[in-house]
Design a protein that fits this description.
The complex is a heterotrimer of chains A (about 230), B (about 775) and C (about 80).
Chain A (H helix, E strand, L loop, with lengths): L23 H6 L3 H9 L1 H4 L21 H7 L5 H5 L5 E3 L11 E3 L13 H5 L19 E4 L15 H5 L7 E7 L7 E7 L9 H5 L7 E4 L12
Chain B lengths: L2 H18 L18 E6 L8 E7 L2 E7 L12 H4 L1 H4 L10 E4 L2 E4 L2 H19 L4 E5 L5 H15 L4 E3 L6 H11 L9 H5 L2 E5 L3 H4 L1 H13 L4 E6 L1 E2 L1 H5 L2 E4 L5 H14 L5 H7 E5 L22 E3 L1 H7 L5 H8 L3 H11 L6 E5 L1 H4 L4 H15 L9 E3 L6 H9 L14 H11 L14 H9 L5 E5 L3 H4 L3 H9 L4 E6 L11 E4 L8 E4 L4 E5 L12 H11 L13 H10 L12 H6 L3 E2 L37 E5 L15 E6 L15 H6 L5 E3 L1 H6 L7 E5 L4 E8 L4 E2 L3 E5 L27 E7 L1
Parallel strand pairs in B: 6-7, 6-16, 8-9, 8-14, 9-11, 12-22, 14-15, 16-17, 17-18, 23-28, 24-26
Antiparallel strand pairs in B: 1-2, 2-3, 4-5, 4-18, 10-27, 12-13, 19-20, 20-21, 23-29, 24-28, 25-26, 25-29
Helix pairs in contact in B: 4-23, 5-18, 5-23, 6-17, 11-14, 11-15, 11-17, 14-15, 20-22
Chain C lengths: L2 E8 L4 H9 L4 E6 L4 E7 L3 H13 L3 E10 L3 H4 L2
Antiparallel strand pairs in C: 1-3, 1-4, 2-3
The chains are: A alpha+beta (about 230), B alpha/beta (about 775), C alpha+beta (about 80).
């Protein structure tokens, strides 16, 4: 879908996308009203619509986004973060997002977050939906990368891939390689990429880089740390 | 049963058998049904010098899958992702399918007849007016053996010029010259088994993790299985290899020339050498010094026998006294203490020590010398020709060994270690080729750098380039691009895709690639691997052998290729094989290669391969009781060369304060003409970046992904910065890759080369860096 | 057209040589050589008798300790009965 901006306002252009983000203008002009109306009309009808941006119950929000419920309340749907993003990674959701219509999201497989060190998206947000207290890109927690298909992962199968690892902006911190003996060949090592949730920022560069047709490493909801001791 | 169903059944049978032995199948379960209707054939991988064995799946006349061949001894079913996507590399949308002839600024489609007639007329014209040395051919370490052999016979035996060069001149030439002047014979004495059997591996400027992926996997497995194994990464840049090594030793660019000398000094000083080995096997020599850097056109530097001085061991020891560890530290940046430690490791009798190197040492303005010095370490300590203990010169290209080096497609070579300068060698070649011995010129032809400079000087009028991309890859490439654009020569390019070289061609010929033709490759460990044609090339594309022979016919040289149509490959092989019999390079009969996943030469009389050369344990040329015998070296004695330190051609200074180095990443191959057309590899690594040390970046106000301008005395380029990525150059150095055809990074490289090997130094020149 | 998946167990150190030898036999496809010296292969022949003969031949090869059947497909068996 093409974005046609109002004068002076740059709207992200979607290229080769499979989802249905809409432009701000379309949203304002009401061309999204039909699906929106249907959504508001009743849960039964709206259940038919696909919601690709939050498949798996998770929407990848821009850096610094507060917790999802608060985010939906705090975000004023101004689109300024999307305009600030130099890579056009941040898109704005359409009617399929239900209550989240007009909120910003990222589809890593199309364009991940490239972790601009000055966090322009954050700085542009007027409402605090993206928390300005975040200053260090390594402290971003948009989500956690997870290898969802170990059987298909080429590295785990013993081939030399590990592209996700080598392209990870926090190489050796968010993703490390754990080598182990390949028992099938008997004389090679399997170089398995392992994600470390405490370091992973959820940028999705790994998901973008995965060489398989359907990426086997994807960004999902933040995985929380767990302790090895107990509180009684 | 239909063929398709039978294949499905066979796949199930194999899977079941694997399951029966409790082994997880290479392929994911459930894929057998999808694979019904696919026929599989074997081939070596099209990419690097590791030479993995792959299975190629063909369905409906197209390659639908490639995968590691479980029966392949090199890789046992594994690949890197370049090999995994090999099939896709042949199916880019803009595959060349018709001959094209330049008319003004446009390339116009033509028939093969028209194109070949034009090429022949241009070559004939040039030869008539200016002699056979006014024409040239530039081929490739990615040529098949048959392609190289055809070219050699055509140029040297037919047209009568030695102006035939492979792109291996830019990759392995330094290694070759050192093999010849040390051992009297090209190619390693060890093999990949040494990676499984040794316990100490010293890497000199080699990023094996990314450049030799499956070999690195094998090396790391050895380390995982045996706690004693130690991997030491001596390099100018931290890489993924560094990450898995036991130790990283930072070295200044060009520092290897000093460091190895200092290590030798300690070995001599503390008498850590193997006296009896030296006495039995070694001569000491001193060569020509104060060498130039090839920066001036037509500069000549040769190390003839008259230039070489014989030394006694004592004289050698005296000469080496100056290279103290402190001296070594000053020039290499490696601490003196560490140099002492390395000397102890190299001479440690309880360890099986291997040295591994490729482009860091070879693409070096004193590359031959560094190769010599590394051999010195192994020869002084006697750590050579033993299973698990060898110096292993790693090869870059899939057939730099098999084609360029073994067939000898160089300006000075003939097949099987022979040279054009030697009358007896020319005579033998002429005999096998069935030509007048006076036809093969004794005069050495133009080496690659000079060949392309000669275009600029209007001395080479016609050049035929096959299977390589010099107008992107040569150092200081603007000079020759300008010459080509000024139409100074008639340029013919045979390739499979439009490249930076077809861009400047007069005639573009569409070529068949890899399994679109029958062929043979030879990898790093002397393993010759054959494959059959599996699919038709697209459109009117034809294999390079056909192109050259059609050209030969139009030049009146068709009689040089009297092979039948059906038996072409076998007959040519058997003729070529004659060069190799009885001189330690023995190849097997053609059918033998069709049955197996390659064989390592020399092939023994009973048809078995040789894993270790020069040792009675495995080499049939060495009789029982002889132990180790360097039977290719004069007097069976190899040479330890005294090589001094001489500085690089260009070092950083006030105006250009950074070192500039170039190299590769795992995901892309060379100039990216093939891997760049695989969407998955493109997605993985979309473009070239400039790697910088984080402190340098900070100082210059450059953040990760910022655009940066890098300028040398020869060119300037803008690249996005990569800071804290997969590679970290040392402070004061930057690094980039040459696979991106939108970024001609080699414009900045200096066209200085090793005076003995004529191999350019792609690893060091001086640049300035600033935010763009 | 019977097709079988088989596992050959070989004597110490002889697996590689055996694999090369049997790969050259018509009707035999080697699919893998395992580090412990076992070979996974697929054999096919025109008839069940042919297949038995082939497997017997494999058992006679020097270096082969045993040949075990892992999978047998005999879809056309019906058609072979007189």
């Amino acid at each position: 879908m093409r974005g046609q901006g109002e004068k002076g306002v740059r709207i992200p252009m979607d290229t080769e996308t499979t989802h249905s983000g809409i432009s701000r203008r379309q949203f304002l002009k009401g061309s999204a009203f039909t699906p929106l109306a249907l959504i508001l009309a009743g849960g039964g009808v709206a259940a038919v619509y696909l919601r690709p941006i939050d498949a798996g119950g998770f929407t990848l929000r821009p850096p610094g986004a507060v917790e999802e419920k608060r985010f939906l309340a705090a975000c004023v749907r101004c689109g300024k973060c999307a305009q600030a993003c130099p890579y056009q990674s941040i898109k704005m959701s359409g009617g399929e997002a239900w209550v989240g219509i007009g909120t910003p999201f990222i589809i890593p497989r199309e364009m991940p977050c490239y972790l601009c060190s000055d966090l322009p998206c954050l700085k542009a947000c007027p409402s605090g939906a993206l928390d300005k207290k975040l200053e260090d890109i390594e402290k971003i927690r948009m989500g956690t990368a997870v290898i969802i298909d170990r059987e298909s992962c080429l590295s785990i199968r013993g081939l030399r891939c590990e592209v996700c690892y080598r392209q990870c902006p926090l190489i050796d911190k968010a993703i490390t390689i754990e080598p182990r003996h390949n028992t099938r060949t008997g004389e090679h090592s399997i170089m398995e990429p392992v994600v470390h949730k405490e370091k992973c920022v959820g940028c999705g560069i790994c998901e973008k880089s995965c060489v398989l047709p359907k990426p086997v490493i994807v960004v999902q909801k933040l995985v929380e740390s767990q302790k090895d001791n107990y509180d009684f | 049963m239909e063929l398709t169903r039978r294949d499905f059944i066979k796949a199930s049978a194999a899977a079941a058998a694997f399951a029966a032995v409790g082994v997880p199948v290479v392929r994911p379960k459930g894929v057998e049904a999808a694979e019904a209707g696919i026929t599989w054939g074997k081939a070596p991988c099209r990419f690097c010098g590791v030479g993995c064995c792959v299975l190629v799946g063909v369905k409906g006349g197209k390659i639908v899958a490639t995968k590691g061949d479980p029966a392949g001894p090199v890789n046992k079913g594994l690949n890197c992702i370049k090999g995994y996507f090999l099939s896709k590399a042949l199916y880019g949308k803009d595959r060349l399918t018709k001959p094209l002839i330049r008319k003004g600024n446009r390339m116009v489609e033509a028939s093969w007849d028209e194109a070949l007639a034009l090429i022949a007329s241009k070559f004939k014209e040039s030869i008539a007016a200016h002699g056979p040395d006014s024409v040239a051919m530039y081929g490739s370490g990615q040529w098949t053996v048959h392609e190289g052999y055809t070219a050699s016979k055509l140029m040297k035996g037919g047209i009568g010029t030695n102006n035939l060069e492979p792109n291996a001149r830019l990759c392995m030439a330094s290694a070759v010259v050192a093999f010849m002047n040390t051992f009297g014979s090209d190619e390693p004495m060890g093999c990949y088994d040494d990676l499984d059997l040794g316990d100490t591996y010293i890497l000199w400027g080699a990023n094996m993790a990314e450049a030799h992926p499956v070999l690195f996997s094998r090396l790391i497995d050895n380390k995982l299985k045996h706690p004693k194994v130690r991997l030491i990464d001596i390099a100018t840049r931290r890489t993924r290899t560094t990450k898995m090594a036991d130790e990283y030793i930072a070295m200044r660019p060009h520092g290897d020339l000093a460091a190895v000398n200092s290590i030798i000094h300690v070995i001599l000083r503390d008498k850590l050498y193997d006296e009896s080995f030296i006495k039995q096997h070694v001569n000491f020599k001193r060569g020509k010094e104060n060498a130039p850097y090839g920066l001036k056109d037509k500069e000549v530097f040769n190390e003839t026998p008259a230039d070489v001085k014989n030394l006694t061991f004592d004289e050698y020891k005296d000469l080496m006294k100056q290279f103290t560890p402190q001296w070594g530290e000053k020039l290499s940046g490696i601490p003196a203490k560490k140099i002492e430690e390395l000397a102890r490791i190299y001479s440690d009798k309880s360890r099986k020590v291997n040295s591994l190197w490729t482009m860091g040492v070879n693409q070096h303005s004193r590359g031959v010398w560094v190769n010599n010095l590394i051999y010195n370490l192994h020869l002084l300590t006697g750590k050579i020709c033993k299973p698990g203990e060898n110096p292993l010169s790693l090869t870059g290209q899939p057939s730099a060994c098999g084609t360029a080096r073994e067939v000898g497609t160089f300006a000075h070579r003939l097949p099987a270690d022979m040279v054009v300068m030697n009358e007896a060698h020319r005579k033998k070649a002429a005999e096998i080729w069935g030509i007048d011995p006076n036809k093969i010129p004794a005069k050495v032809g133009l080496h690659t750098m000079e060949m392309f400079r000669a275009i600029d000087r209007n001395e080479v009028k016609c050049i035929w380039i096959q299977c390589t991309n010099p107008f992107q890859s040569l150092p200081n490439v603007s000079r020759i691009r300008k010459a080509a654009e000024a139409r100074k020569a008639f340029i013919v390019v045979s390739d499979i895709y439009p490249t930076k070289s077809t861009e400047v061609a007069n005639v573009i010929l569409p070529s068949a690639s890899w399994v679109e033709k029958e062929g043979v490759f030879g990898n790093t460990e002397r393993r010759t691997q054959q494959w059959f044609k599996m699919i038709e090339p697209p459109g009117q594309a034809r294999e390079d052998t056909w192109q050259m022979i059609e050209f030969a016919k139009r030049m009146g040289l068709g009689h040089l290729f009297p092979y039948s149509e059906k038996g072409f490959y076998k007959e040519m092989w058997e003729e070529y094989r004659k060069f190799t019999i009885g001189n330690g390079k023995d190849l097997a009969p053609y059918e033998a290669y069709a049955k197996v996943r390659g064989l390592r030469w020399p092939i023994k009389p009973d048809g078995r391969e040789t894993r270790w050369r020069y040792t009675e344990a495995d080499d049939s040329y060495v009789k029982k009781g002889e132990g180790i015998k360097f039977y290719k070296a004069p007097g069976n004695k190899v040479n330890i060369w005294f090589r001094p330190y001489e500085p690089p051609a260009e070092s950083p200074d006030r105006e250009y304060p950074f070192w500039y180095s170039t190299g590769r990443v795992l995901e892309h191959w060379h100039t990216g003409t093939m891997t760049g057309r695989v969407p998955e590899l493109r997605r993985a690594v979309p473009g070239a970046t400039i790697e910088m040390h984080p402190e340098d970046a900070k100082r210059l106000g450059i953040r990760n992904r910022d655009m940066v301008r890098i300028t040398s005395r020869r060119g300037s380029i803008v690249l996005p910065a990569e800071v804290n990525g997969r590679g970290a150059p040392e402070k004061g150095s930057v690094f980039t890759t040459f696979f991106d055809e939108t970024k001609l990074v080699n414009e900045l490289c200096i066209d200085a080369f090793d005076p003995l090997s004529k191999e350019p130094d792609f690893k060091k020149c001086a640049v300035k860096v600033k935010k763009a | 057209m019977p097709v079988s998946g088989i596992v050959l167990t070989c004597g110490a150190g002889s697996a590689d040589d055996v694999a090369l030898r049997i790969a050259a036999i018509k009707g035999v496809e080697v699919h893998g050589v395992l580090p412990d010296g076992r070979i996974v292969a697929v054999v096919e022949a025109d008839t069940v008798d042919g297949e038995v003969a082939l497997v017997t031949e494999l058992q006679e090869i020097e270096g082969v300790v045993s040949v075990q059947l892992a999978y047998h497909n005999f879809e056309d068996f019906e058609a072979e009965r007189p």
